[in-house]
Amino acid sequence: MIRYGKWYLLNGVKQYVHVISNNLNNPILIYLHGGPGDAALPLVEHFNDELSEKYTLVIWEQRGSGKSYYKFAENEQLTINDFVYDLKALIDELLVEFKKDKVCLLGHSWGSIIGIKFIMSYPELVHYYIGVGQVISSNKQFEIIKKYVADHTSNENVKNKILGLDITFKQRTWFSDLMFLMNLLIKQGVSLYGKKSYSSLYKYFIFSKSYSLIDCINRLKGSKQSILKLWSDVVQTDFSNDKEFKVPIAFIEGEYDYHASSEVALDFFRKLTSPKLFYCMKDTAHFPQWTRAEAFNTIINSLEISSFSTSNEIKKI
Fold first, then answer.
1. Using H for helix, E for strand and C for coil, what is the string for the chain?
2. Does the pTM of the predicted model rise above 0.90?
């Protein structure tokens, strides 16, 4: 087993990448973590190590996140496209380094926004794209979140506050409103399936050989600053009208994902006219890669270009 960490200077910003592989001749699979700013190296390393059997697994800690943390300047202008350009710079380096002409991409949640935008801009560099907890339309998905949380809240004052929230998040109190709504959703067990918080995942960061205590602290700082800096861009995300891609797309969605609605992802999938796959994972929500890791890894390791078709079949796992 080959494991190592490496720093890359991507568009002027030093960023950390962790590589795990049984064979460096394997196809490259780049993991695009969620958030924004929700670096996930210790979790991917613990739960998804098996992906290194088929792929050279590349875990990228995005700018300002986790091991790639630095404090964003107050006047620093960042958009989703900056992360797309960082990914392009990273892929350019990896293709030369590993003597390849294409990579595979796996985007989770916020990372799925980067992933879709990347394959729209640079389809010639990607064998296939895998979306997990795929973000399609922020507006549609937050409408579903509002309704779900309101329907599962017995306190009328809380319910009225939820229904009155502005999900364009342009209001002065947008950050506290966002945290309020998401915390209520998480407590319903439809983000991390069956759990009322993310606390069961903390130990993997604390005891990781790849993360120091400073990295753990920086991850928290990176998450908050990334949300503050990028959320106005996130809420404008809408791929609803895109129906054809030059790259095959596989969606792996949690059956009970109300964090980034699997219903919205399924509706999008059915309208796609290009090669595609859809896996619905039972007893999971927004994090199927960690809730049912073995089944998730098996799906990813079984993918081939020949797996994709234009059929609307849903594979329930």
1. CEEEEEEEEECCEEEEEEEEECCCCCCEEEEECCCCCCCCHHHHHHHCHHHHHCCEEEEEECCCCHHHCCCCCCCCCCCHHHHHHHHHHHHHHHHHHCCCCCEEEEEECHHHHHHHHHHHHCHHHEEEEEEECCCCEHHHHHHHHHHHHHHCCCCHHHHHHHHCCCCCCCCCCHHHHHHHHHHHHHCCCCCCCCCCCCHHHHHHHHCCCCCCHHHHHHHHHHHHHHHHHHHHHHCCCECCCCCCCCCCEEEEEECCCCCCCHHHHHHHHHHCCCCEEEEEECCCCCCHHHHCHHHHHHHHHHCCHHHCECCCCCEEC
2. yes
Q: What is the pLDDT of residues 40-77, one digit of tens each?
A: 999 999 999 999 999 999 999 999 999 999 999 999 99
CB count within 10 Å of CB 260 equals: 30
Structural domains for the chain = 2-137+199-316 (3.40.50.1820)
Mean predicted lDDT score pLDDT of the chain: 97
Task: Encode pLDDT of 71-104 as tens digits.
Answer: 999 999 999 999 999 999 999 999 999 999 999 9
CB 210 within 8 Å of CB 41: yes
